[in-house]
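Researcher: I'm comparing several assemblies side by side, and this is the next one on my list. It has 396 residues spread over two chains. Same procedure as the others: predict the full complex and return the structure.
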Amino acid sequence: MSNQNVKWHDHLVQREKRAKQKEQKPCLIWFTGLSGAGKSTVANALDILLLELNKHTYLLDGDNVRYGLNRDLGFSDADRIENIRRIGEMGKLFVDAGLIVLSAFISPFRSDRQMVRNLFLAGEFIEVHISTSLDVCEQRDPKGLYKKARSGQIKNFTGIDSVYEKPVDPEIVIDTGELSIQDAAQKIYDYLCDHAYI
Amino acid sequence: MSNQNVKWHDHLVQREKRAKQKEQKPCLIWFTGLSGAGKSTVANALDILLLELNKHTYLLDGDNVRYGLNRDLGFSDADRIENIRRIGEMGKLFVDAGLIVLSAFISPFRSDRQMVRNLFLAGEFIEVHISTSLDVCEQRDPKGLYKKARSGQIKNFTGIDSVYEKPVDPEIVIDTGELSIQDAAQKIYDYLCDHAYI
């Protein structure tokens, strides 16, 4: 084997050991949906549930990514694509590290989500569509953003004057207008059990 | 408490639990030094050693970062700075996830390394200067890069026609011209034990 092959082989062995050590099948659980749909809330509830069961997880969301790694990015189309690309690449490294990674971003465009899915092996990427309706999201309006978008203070707001492209064939669909946060987290947890991730 | 405070409190609790679960004090071990100095080799040896002892680690190096997250970056001064910034921010998230992170990049400029150190709390950032001399590195020339730099085929090569700024007060200094790879890994391992990281 060449040096490069030896290195790659070593890397695969280490990767397998890290996953085995953690007694889980690493994956990226990708939450997508409108602002206010409940992505972060459900992802947080699932994160806490998994940690209580001694699983090794990490949650990527606006709070720890937008103001750190991606703080050089704005809201132009090019920057939005780059935002999702970096989150996908980072998710890939976390999965490589053996973790179950949860990411909660609107990620409105199908092509961007597909780009991220393509970074992963089959089964490593789990798309969770938080399908809560625009009406419900707008009624909740937890950050007052819909109000600002309706009045024109914010431009290009997903669901108002920018499109949200629904996933065609997501692994899981959850409407938090119908399901409680705990039940939503439980539904994803059951999926992970049924498919032998944990 | 406001919603934001509750969230931050929850995050700190989760962070602490993740570290406790892994029975280690998360940190970023930052290897810096010339090309061919042995950064990646020592980091890999330490990574394998720590995993054998059931520690939870991850190694960031050119192989998994340059062609993924940072593949949009070139070798201009601005891109080099951005390269190190992103690695630092990513390292911060991995430390937040509870891992002992090893990073192996030339990172020739003091100000860039200081920028990364500033992202971390005291004790979370461990600078390891792989101080192997230019002569030894150039004799090894594992990728034939020094030869190309000397002949002018590569420009701005660290140590030849671009400066390497030695760390002023690194936590650890290792010269792989004097110490074997195993002894070098052991020296860092001892430091981690002595300072209660593991």
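Model: For your comparison table: The helical segments of chain B are 3-21, 39-52, 62-65, 77-96, 110-117, 134-140, 145-150, 181-194.
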